[in-house]
Structures are given as structure tokens and as C-alpha cells.
Amino acid sequence: MDTSGNSAFPPVPNPASSFRLPVILSVVLGLVTLAVIVGLCVYVARRMKLSIVTEPVQPKPSPVIKFWEADAPTMQKFFLKLAQENPVRFTAQQLCTFTENYNTMLGRGGFGSVYKGQFPNGVEIAVKVLNRGPNKSIEEQFMAEVGTIGRTHHINLVRLYGFCYDQFMSALVYEFMENGSLDKHLFSDNKKLEWDKLHQIAIGTAKGIAYLHEECKQRIIHYDIKPGNVLLDENFAPKVADFGLAKLCNREDTHVTLTGYRGTPGYIAPEFMLKNFPITYKCDVYSFGILLFEIIGRRKNTNVAGNSDSLDWFPKQVWEDFEKGKLMQLTEACGIEEKDRAAAERMALVALWCAQDSPDMRPPMSAVVKMLEGGVEIVPPPKPFRYLFAVGNDVVRAGSGSGTGSGSTTSGGTNSYWYKETTPVMAKYEITVASV
Ligand SMILES: Nc1ncnc2c1ncn2[C@@H]1O[C@H](COP(=O)(O)OP(=O)(O)OP(=O)(O)O)[C@@H](O)[C@H]1O
Ligand SMILES: [Mg+2]
């Protein structure tokens, strides 16, 4: 029998092999099904375990790139520019790095938010990220203003190191002031600052503003003098902050008050209430006077309601006590020690001069410095705050022409409208200069 399969007939089917194929197929199918079931069980078990045991989510590290490690020449260039005292342009990424992703906010004001940061060399900075309103300034205009602010240097002005300007953000990079703003020390419950320190702060602040008004190539009007804009360094030496911002940021967008004028309520000069009245640098002198009242009283001038003609308005009380010859008693009631009361009384007179209704009647800041420092005899001030009782051009104009708007001396010699020059020794012994 030929079993080789080479016959002419088709091979006879082997009954054993025809039975094996379906068996193999069903075994494979069974194994696959089993694997799928086991897989499903494992998956469900894991899900159930996860829903019972919630593991803590690890915070993602912030995407901070230490660009200076990669780009040392750029940093060198930057420090060189800083040394040359020109403002430096930073990128948004650099500011993000300096502030460690904006993780420490120092405060928020009318222009934007302020964050603490550090340059790679360890110098601490404050980064002010500006609000961008609909009237955002164009890049060139922004750089022109920043250029002016950045090149304005004085020991009593906060230094601007640089800025950032791109499609999405505008920011300013300032020197960091360890002791923050004066308002926090003046109005806090634990008022630790000695009166003498406050006196020095007043003089330093006046010198900073005098520099802006009288010594800069282009006069800079601040428009927002208040304790919040006087910053204190590690020794509590004062520096005026935010000068030049009014022009840079189009202040109307950020500091609109109920009556529609600029500045911070409570510190704004009365001329802002009048339509078409020229606003000059003397508006800063008025606000500085209001700040002086707050130093004397160590309290906000206005009550919570901010009603400046209420009986509780401290400057009005100072005027009334001055009229009655009771300034000494007032300083005592303010908790000022006897040894400091003469300087405090002097400060009250300066404040009354600064807060005169008519801008011309207010002394220029260089005169304010002299008057605060002593060594000159302050002329008794006329009545201020008449605008509180009758608003109108006449009130603010009253006295115009009698004072010297320019702040120069009135009648030759060294005496001015606001003070008489004396030397401390002559004053001590009540010796007067002979007039022939
Ligand atoms: N250079 C700085 N160093 C340290 N702290 C600062 C610096 N600049 C601002 N600050 C802090 O940030 C706070 C907010 O400042 P910001 O100038 O934005 O507001 P403001 O002074 O209250 O109001 P305004 O917008 O009218 O100036 C300040 O009160 C101060 O505590
Ligand atoms: Mg400020």
C-alpha cells in the first residue's frame, strides 16, 4: 500500500489531524480570554486601591531658568550698565527669575503690584508690575520716561535699576527698601519710631522733593506725596518713591477719585477741585504739609469716612490750637516728649505754611528744608483751609502775588516770605542785626 501520498488520488483525510485543529483554536481562544479577564481584574483592583489610598500630589518645581549661569557675558554687561547708573532693560523671563516666579508680594498700589526679588549678585530688588490700562503708553514714550526717572539720582530718592517692556507686560525694577513704607510705621499700633527719627525722615523727604522740583534738569512733579510713597532703608533713612510715575502711567487711569481729580484722597491740593486752575509743583508742597501733620499726630488726618471738614480733621485742630497759642499743649497731647516739643512746634508751623490754600503762598521745598532744620525763624502762617468753607477760585487765588511763587527772597537780603534768617547763636542770645 502506497502511503507516500504520491498516488493519483487525493490523499485520504486523517481523522486524528482533522480533530486536533479546532481543539488548538479553542485552547488559544480560551487563553486569550483568560488573559483579558486577568488584565481587567488587575486594572479594576488598581483603580479601587487608588480611590481608597490618595497619595499626596507633589508640587511641580517652578520653571525657573538660571539664565545667568548660562549667559555670564550678558550679566556682566548688565552690571556694567548699572554701575554707569543708566536704567537697564530686562526681559519678562529675567524678571520671573529674579522674583522666583513672583512668589513674594510686597504690596499693591494704584499703578500695580510690587514683588520682592534678587539680582544674581545678591542685591535685593522690588519689581513693580504696572497695570496696563486702555491708554497704555507706547514703547518709545515709556522708555523716554523711564530714562528720565532712571537718571534722576539723589540720596533721598528711590533708585530705579531698570525696566521691562514687551507685548504683555511693563514693569519697573527698584532698589529694595528694607523697612518698607512710612505709613506702616506711622499708623501701626506698635509705633516704635522715635520722634527724632521721624523729624529726620521729614527733612530727608523734603530734600528729595526739593531735588525733583528745583535741581533736576527738567522739573518733576510727583503728584502723589504721601507716607506710602516714602520708603525707609535699613537705617530708616527716607527715600521718595514713585516719582515720574504720574506721567509714565497716565495717572488718571489709576487714581481717579470720587470728584474726578488726580492723586490720593486726603493729600490732594485744593486747586485740583477747580476747573481750569493751573496745577504746579506746589501741589506736592500741599501734600507734603498733610504728611507733616500725620507725623506730628502719628495718625491719619482723616477719620475712616474721609470727611475732611469733620471736626476730627487733625490739620484744622492744629490751626485752631496755633491761633489760641496752644501748640505746645497739642504736641504734648500727641505724646511727644518735652525735649522734642520745640522741633514739633516748628514742624506744625511748616505744615500750616505748606497747606496754604493758595499755591503761591506755599513755600518752595528748599525753604521747607531750611524751616524744618531750624536755624531760621518761621514767620507766623496765615489761616489755611478756607477752601473747606467756601470753594471757589477766589479762595485759592487769595494771597497770590503776595507770596513769591518762585520761592526766591522777597525784599532782598536773606529773609524770605516764610522765614527770617538767624544764626542759632544770635537767636539764642536774642541779638538782632543792626539796620542802618
Ligand atoms: N522699593 C521698594 N522696597 C520695598 N518695598 C516696597 C518698594 N516699593 C514698594 N514697596 C511696598 O509695596 C507697597 C505698595 O507700593 P505701591 O507703590 O504699589 O503702592 P502705594 O505706594 O501704596 O500707592 P501708589 O500707587 O499711590 O504709589 C508699599 O506700600 C511698600 O510697602
Ligand atoms: Mg507707591
UniProtKB/TrEMBL annotation:
Location within or outside the cell: Membrane
Membrane-spanning residues: 23-45
Keyword Kinase: yes
Lineage: Eukaryota, Viridiplantae, Streptophyta, Embryophyta, Tracheophyta
Domain Protein kinase residue range list: 100-386
Protein name as annotated: Serine/threonine protein kinase
Highest taxon of the lineage: Eukaryota
GO terms of molecular function: ATP binding; protein serine/threonine kinase activity
Binding residues annotated for ATP, in chain numbering: K128
Membrane topology: Single-pass type I membrane protein
Family under the similarity heading: Belongs to the protein kinase superfamily.
Enzyme Commission numbers on file: 2.7.11.1
One Gene Ontology CC term in the entry: membrane
